[in-house]
From TrEMBL:
CDD domains assigned to the protein according to its UniProt record, in alphabetical order: NUDIX_Hydrolase (cd04682)
GO MF entry, a single one: hydrolase activity
Organism listed in the record: Pseudosulfitobacter pseudonitzschiae
Protein name: DNA mismatch repair protein MutT
TM ranges: none
Keywords, sorted A to Z: Hydrolase
Residues annotated as domain Nudix hydrolase: 1-129
Amino acid sequence: MPFAGAKLALFIGTRVAVIRRDDIAGIPWPDYLDLPGGGREGSETPLACALRETREELGLVVPTPVVTWGKRFTEGGGDKWFFAGHLPEDVASQIVLGDEGQSWQLMAPQMFIAHPKAVPHFQTRLALYLSGVSGDDFAL
C-alpha cells in the first residue's frame, strides 16, 4: 500500500522520546513538540521509514521487534503510519540529536498528549495507542 511517511512513538522506559521542531518559517508546526519520523524515501516500508528517521533524528538504531504496534491513517498527501515501540530506560544515554530539531527530551505520554505545543494529530494518535485499540498489520 502506498504511503507518504511514518512516525514512531518511542518509549524509553515509561516516557516517550520527543523532539522540539526547528523554529523556522516554511516548515509545518515550527517550534512544536514532535515524535521521530518523516517522509518516505525510495521504496522503503512504513516501518523502515520510521526506523530510519529515528536513527537520523535521535541517533538510535531501533530493532524492528521493539515496534509492536502500528496503524495507518489517511491524510491529504497520502497514507501515514504511526508506530509505537518500547526500549529500556538506559537507552536514553545513547540519544544524540541529529541535524533537525532544536532539542529532545523524554516526556510522560500524558504530558505530550496534553501539551499546548505538541503536534495535535500525533497527540491524538498517541492517545489512541494508549487506549488499547488494535493496530493494523504492517510489514517489517
